[in-house]
Design brief:
Rossmann fold, 32% helix, 19% strand, 2 domains, 7 helices, alpha/beta
């Protein structure tokens, strides 16, 4: 069998390593938006497929027998295209998604919102020194905060300049509690705005916010396509692949 991993995440790299380790043929697809990305073992393709129709054709042309969507929790378009394409091509699909921060002990005290525009509006009501950790591609959706003293941390510099009142910090996790707390103190942060990326690499800011008495606004994850089979760790995805490979009929 050949497994297509829709990757670009730590979970996707861990899965690729695990499947290569047990001898399963794979191809990992990454979006190609990140400069010098960390690449997984095995064959890698970069760039889009041309929507759901293009992905359907790619699955058929390359005789793919299973797809695991390990893209970022906010890569909703790719996840929707994967569901549509796998249905059309008759290929089994699994979603590998890191656990949500909704299980965090402080989650009930945070303000959860549906989108970035709501996050910007809510943050402006909670405090005047805001820390944005929402990703470079979402910064434009916080235009209403252009005159506010905002600290914006991104893994890579955005294509467009941020407003003059903002401080741009380019840094990549994982981050530690002490450094996150020091960053909040240094910039006088009163409100943290983030999205429910989940995982542990960037979670220290949430504990630091509790210690510093900083309000937290969280953009909730987009809904998954109905009926999508989901696991939250690479070993479970490997077990799913093994289950497919032991079937007596083609998949």
């Amino acid at each position: 069998m050949t497994v297509l991993i829709l990757g670009g995440t730590a979970e996707g790299r861990a899965l690729a390593s695990a499947l290569v380790g047990v001898g399963t043929p794979i191809v990992t697809s990454v979006a190609g938006r990140t400069r010098d990305p960390a690449l997984p073992p095995g064959p890698v393709r970069s760039g889009g497929f041309g929507g759901a129709a293009g992905l359907t054709s790619w699955l058929r042309d390359h005789a793919v027998t299973a797809v695991i969507d390990a893209t970022h929790p906010f890569a909703a378009t790719m996840t929707a295209h994967a569901a549509e394409a796998c249905t059309a091509a008759g290929v089994p699909l699994l979603r590998l998604e890191r656990p949500s921060w909704r299980a965090h002990p402080d989650a009930p005290s945070w303000t959860w919102v549906a989108d970035h525009e709501a996050a910007a509006a809510t943050a402006s009501e909670l405090g005047d020194r805001i820390w944005l950790t929402v990703g470079r591609q979402s910064l434009a959706r916080y235009a209403r905060l252009a005159r506010w003293p905002v600290l914006a941390r991104v893994a890579e510099a955005p294509a467009s300049a941020v407003p003059p009142a903002w401080t741009l910090l380019v840094d990549r996790g994982p981050f530690e509690l002490l450094t996150e707390r020091a960053l909040m103190d240094r910039h006088g942060v009163r409100v943290l705005v983030t999205k429910d990326a989940g995982g542990v690499h960037t979670a220290a800011k949430l504990d630091a916010a509790r210690e510093a008495g900083v309000a937290v606004v969280v953009v909730a994850r987009p809904a998954l396509p109905p009926g999508l089979n989901t696991v939250d760790a690479a070993p479970a995805a490997v077990a799913w692949v093994r289950g497919l490979s032991t079937r007596s009929t083609p998949v």
